[in-house]
Design goal:
The mean pLDDT is 94. This protein has one helix at 45-59; strands at residues 10-11, 84-89, 93-98, 103-108, 127-133, 136-142, 147-148, 155-156, 161-170, 173-181, 190-198. The relative contact order is 0.21. Strand 5 and strand 6 form a beta hairpin. The chain is 7% helix and 31% strand. The strands form 2 sheets. A 9-stranded mixed β-barrel has the order 1-2-3-4-5-6-9-10-11. It is mainly beta.
Length: 214
């Protein structure tokens, strides 16, 4: 069947702080440095306490980021990372590729379901299936490892699941709307919007080996 043309190389606009935020229209957290954004996630008491502890540590200069250990960003943090991206669209699968650590998400659109519960286990990028609604790719992701939305942002649990609606809204912009559901960490669904801009020059994406620079 016909699938949209998302060819080319794309990037996330990172021109001004906050760099460590989740979603669009973010503003800096006044209690932290400008790089860290405020979060609109509505957290459960357990996860709000964890978040307050994280921010208190940050104010003391204490922080651990998994990227420093060459671990993947994981999903949904995958959405927030800078650098280059490619979207390889075929009728049966769409590959969502970010240059950072060569992290690839595979969205299966061939009608298969999720991995059966008795075979499933947590994955960095989760288990993603989807379908096309016109020119919009609708993606459901389960089986995620717990993680953080970004540096200085709240954590999500292994119970998190997400729904994305991805479409090209102009010749040079791809929009990705996400809703996150997590009964363990969220009191209500957490929504955010990301946009990716097409790179004018045809840049090449190379294999990223974090350990070479660690």
């Amino acid at each position: 069947g016909n699938v949209p043309d998302w060819s080319g190389v794309w990037t996330r606009n990172f021109e001004k702080p906050p760099f460590f935020a989740f979603g669009n229209g973010a503003v800096s957290d006044p209690t932290l440095t400008p790089e860290y954004g405020l979060s609109s996630a509505q957290l459960t008491p357990e996860y709000q306490a964890k978040f307050e502890k994280k921010k208190a540590d940050l104010r003391k200069g204490i922080e651990w980021d998994q990227l420093s250990d060459c671990l993947p960003a994981g999903f949904p943090r995958w959405l927030t990372e800078p650098f280059l991206r490619e979207f390889v669209v075929t009728p049966a699968q769409t590959w969502l590729i970010t240059e950072q650590q060569s992290e690839v998400r595979r969205v299966y659109t061939d009608g298969r379901g999720h991995t059966p519960a008795d075979e499933a286990y947590p994955l960095w990028e989760g288990d993603s299936i989807g379908f096309w609604s016109g020119d919009t790719l609708v993606v459901h992701t389960t089986n995620l490892k717990p993680g953080q939305y970004q540096r200085g942002q709240p954590d999500y649990s292994e119970q998190a699941t997400t729904v994305q609606m991805i479409r090209r809204i102009s010749p040079t912009v791809i929009e990705d709307k996400i809703t996150i559901y997590d009964p363990k960490s969220l009191t209500r669904p957490y929504r955010a919007v990301f946009t990716y801009d097409k790179v004018a020059e045809p840049l090449r994406i190379n294999m990223w080996s974090c350990n070479e620079n660690n």
